[in-house]
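Checklist before submission:
- one chain only
- standard amino acids only
- sequence pasted in full

Submission:
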Amino acid sequence: MVVCLESPKCREDDGDRLCSLPEPVIHQIFSFMETIDVVRASAVSRKWRYLWLSVPYLSFDMSTISSNPQEIWSHEKFKDFVNWVLLSQSGSVSIQRFRLYCLSYANDYTVYRWVCAVARRNVQVFDLTVYGEVTELPHCLVTCESLEALKLACWQLRMCVLKLPFSVGFSRLKSLDLHNVEFLDHNLLHKFVSSRRLLEKLILKSCSFRDFKILDISSTSLKSLTLDDFGGDESGNYKVKIACPNLVSFNFLASWAPDFAFEDLDSLQNAFIFFDIIDRDERDNESCHILSKLLNELCEVKALKLSTAFLREDCDDWKISNKSIFCLTCHLKTVELIHVAGDENELELVRFLLKNGHVLKKLSFSWMEDVENRKEIISRIMKLPRSSSNVALEFLEPKPHDDFLKY
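Returned file contents:
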C-alpha cells in the first residue's frame, strides 16, 4: 500500500477515505513507518496534526537521520529527535512496539534512559540494535512485567554482557531473540528459560558463554528454538541438551558438531541442522556417527533439513536403528540436503532416504558453490530406486543460511 503524503488538505465534506479512517486503523498504518515519517505525515491533515502523539508504535533508526550516522553531529541530532518524541508523548500511552537502531558510546547513558522511559510505558515488544559499547541491560527493562517480546543485537566493538533474572521479571515474555550477546554463566540461561512459563520462541545468534561446556535448554512452553552461529571451543568439545516436549521447530547452525542429547521431543515437526566444519582429526567414522545419531534422535519429524558438510569423509559404519528406519518409512515427508557437492557419501545418504522413505513426498538438494558436474550428479540420483512413487526431487541453486530457516 502506498500513501501519498503530498495530497491536498483533507476536509470532512470531501469524502477523503484516508482522513476518515478510524484512529486505530491509522495507528496500524503508522506502525509500518519510521517515527520520523509519522511526524512528517502530521502535515497532511489537521486531523493528523497531533495523531503521532498517541501512536503506540515507535521506530527510530539512526540511518534515517543522516547518510553518515557515525558523524558526531548526526548522533546528537538523532538523540535530540528521540528525546523530543519521548518527552512529547503522554506517559499514559502504552507502547506496543519500540524499535531502536543506534550508536552507543562509552560513558553515554542516553540509550539507558530511553530504555527506562519505554519500560515505564508498559512496552510489549522491544527491538534494540546497538552499534558500540553496551555492558548490560538496565534493570528497569529486565524486570519489565509487560514485555512479551525482546530482541537485542550488539555489534562492532564488543558483545553485550547480559544478566538474566531467573526468579523475578519477564513474567509475560513469549519471545527472546539475542544476537552477539555474552552470558556470564550458562546455568543462568538454563534457569531463566526453564522458569519462563510463557516463553515460546528463543533465538540465540552469535552468542557466547564463559566457561562453557554444556548448553541445557529445558522448557515445557518453548515451541521454536534457533541456535545460529553457535559453538563452544574450536574442538567442538561441548554438549547441547534439548528437553522441550512442546517444541515444534528446531534450527541449529554451527561450525563444529556438538554432542547432542535430545529428550521429550514428541511434538517436533521441523528440524534444520547445519555444520560448516568438522574437525579433520576426528576418527574416520565420526561423521557417520553424528549423522546416525541425528537420524535416530530426530526420526519422527515431518520436515528435516541437513547439511552435508559432515559427509566429506568415508562412511562405512551406518548405525541407523530399526526405530529410525520405521519412522522414516512411516512419518518423514520432506527432506532437504544443504551444500550438496555430489560425492559418494552424499549419494549413499540419498540412496538410503529414497529406499526407506515410503511416505516421502519431497527431497530437495541445495548445491554448494562451483559444483561443475551437476548434470552428471542429477542423472545418477534420478536413476536411484524409490520406495515412494509420489516423491518429488528438487535441485536448488546455492542460497544463504537464513533462507534455510524458512519452512
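Reviewer check: The two ends are 27 Å apart (CA to CA).
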